[in-house]
Each structure stands twice: as C-alpha cells, then as structure tokens.
Fold:
Amino acid sequence: MDLRESVSSSVLSSTPTLKSTDRAEHELLLCCVRPQVDSHVSDRIRSLVAQDLDWEYLFLLARRHSVVALLYYRLQETAAEIVPAQPFQRLQKYFQDNAARNVIFNAELSRLLAMLGENGIEAIPYKGPVLGLFAYNNLALRRFVDLDVMVKREDAAKSIDLLLADGYEVSKSINLSQRKVLLQTQHNLQLHRSNRQLIVELHWEVASQLFVSSVQADDLWGGLVPIEINGVQSKTLSTEDLLFSLSVHALRHVWEKLLWICDLAWIISRYDLDWSILLQRARSTKIERNFLLGLQLCRRLLGVALPDHVVQQIERDSSIDKLADVVIEFLLSGTEHIPASSLQHLKFNLLVRPSWPARARYFRHILNPTDGDLTAVSLPGSLSFGYYLMRPFRLLFKTGGQIQKVLFHGKNGDQ
Structure:
C-alpha cells in the first residue's frame, strides 16, 4: 500500500470511478458487488461480460476480496446466458460451497450462543452470519472466516474457559498470566477447533479504548436489537452502532478488503439511518476522517447515494479523497493479497487522525503488548511488566526503525 500524497479528483457516477487505465475486470467486479443496480448498470455489466475478459483474473481478484458470492449472484441475475460456461460453473460451485459452509457456521454460532446463555453469559453475535442476514438479507451472499461473539468484559475470562472446555483451543499458546495481560490490553481473543476449520473471535470491546476513544462496549449494549439465529433468540448491535463498528474494524486492517466496503454500502442502501447519531459518534471518537473515508469509498466504488449534508462534510476534508485513492489503488493492485506492513499501518493510522492528541492515543495503543509479544517470550506472572518494556523494541524492529521518520519528517496532520 503506497501512501502517496498526490491524487487525481473523481466524480461520482452510476459506474465506478476509476482511472482510464483500469481493467475491464475491475469495473465489472465493482458493478456486480454494488448494492443497487439500475438498468444503466445492468446494461454495462452485460457489455463488459461480452468483452474478451480474463475470467481467471476476475475470479482470483473476487476471491482475494471475499466477494465471489456477490459476483456470482449479480452475474446470474443480469447476464447468466452470456457468461462463458466454464467460469460461470466455477463461480456457481464456489457460491454453493460457500452457502453450505455458512449454514454449518451459522449452526455452530447458535449452539455457542445457547451454551454461553445457559452459563449465565449474555453474548451477542457480531459480523459473520449475522452480517450476512442483516446487510444482505441472504446468508449465502457473504463470505466469512470466523465467528465473532461479543461478551461483557467481566464475562470474558469465564467465556474463554467455557470455550476451552467445549473443545476450542487458543490459536496462540498463552498461559494464564499472559491471558490476564491480554484481557487488559487488547479487545479480543481468537480460538479455534477442528484443525482450524472453525474459528471464534471472542470480543469484549469493538476495539481498544486507545485505538478509538468513546466507543465502549457498555454503550453498545444499551442499544441492542433482537435477532433470531437458527431459532435461538439473541440480540445484536443497532444499525448505527454496527455501521460505525464496521468502519473501525476496516481501519484496524487499513481497508484491505473490498468486502468491508460492500458491508457498509449494502447496510446504507437497506436501512433508514440516523445520520446525526452516526456523525456525532464519529466526531466523538476522534477518527471522524476514517468514517467519512468509508462513506466516500462507498460513493466512489459502489455508487452509494448519501445525504447532501454528509457529502458536503466529506468534501470539506481534502485528505479523504487522498486516502481513498490510496485504498482504491491497493484494492485493485492484483489478485494476491499482500498485507500492509507495520509501518504502512502506522502511516495510515496517523493520516486518519489529524490531531496530535488522537495520535498520542494511538501510540499508547500500539505500545500495548499484543498476543505476538506474549508468545514471543514466556514470562512468569511476577514479571509480566516485562512485556510492556519489550513492546517498543519489537515495534521498532517490525517497522524497520523508521518510526522517527514518520513522526518527525512527515508533513502536518492535515496532509
């Protein structure tokens, strides 16, 4: 991900806003995964399908971004009779396999929710199958690799013990003293079973309080809405809380997947949102720029219509389009997913935080020990403070010792 400063302007249209040099496969993918397709876009899809496309490239790019199901769904709906047989059958099989897999995951989620509930723990499903139903109204349309479950912080340790007793294992081997550090410094823990075919991410916060301020799990619990998972009555985040939480999740991974933009776009298109609540939440967290970036990506890539006052707010911050250009270039950089480096994460997170107090909070966040730090060296509980001393040196190593360049040789926070 190249964090450039120079960008070109873009204009919202009914087809994706891309550079003239972009491939037809890019435009077709973006037309197919958008939430709303009018006759103009439908005609454009058929026109693109009729071209001499590299269907292998298209499939691999869609798979990289976990949107093969959406691609197949739209092609089947608008151009099934003109898609070449072999690539269409490949997409169809992937769609069917994903749908069957999602049913298994959904059943496991309902079982886990029931098990936790029977042990006095209120747990809410977060992302995963719920998002497939909530955003797309079709479990088969979303690809997910794990089950996200949120519990209250005071129930986190007991929930971990219940999952371990149920046959799950901690993905990275940590002892009890290390787990205590993790519960204090991080917001989730990953567990797995069945040779890592089933993965659960247990959350006790949406994100670290230092990563994003004013988004506390306690606040989210008060706005839960009812939902049914395989006959099990449960609750999940309200539409506004879910939308904002998804933008925070995307920031944690520097917007590396088109799927996460699709999630936002389909929710915005399906629901009548309270934009005053959303914008107030964004301002209070000190990462308003990131939330507006997500909205602009929805506009530019997927043609999502936003209220005029929201568009005006986006356009007042010239950095948003600069960041959007960086994200779009990375999203369409090829079929191989190359995760952003630690240094690129650092740069991006500083750019979405224009104020120095917000940046200071972020630095406090990245100086907290991670599960990687805990598994690198095993320290006894009495020496657990050593993880905090070790973290800055490991961070310097991971960023190639270039943090000082980012801090003291970059331009101001409004770049």
Summary: Residues 85-118 form the longest helix (34 residues). The chain is about 55% helix and 10% strand. Strands lie at 123-125, 147-151, 169-170, 188-193, 198-203, 225-229, 232-236.
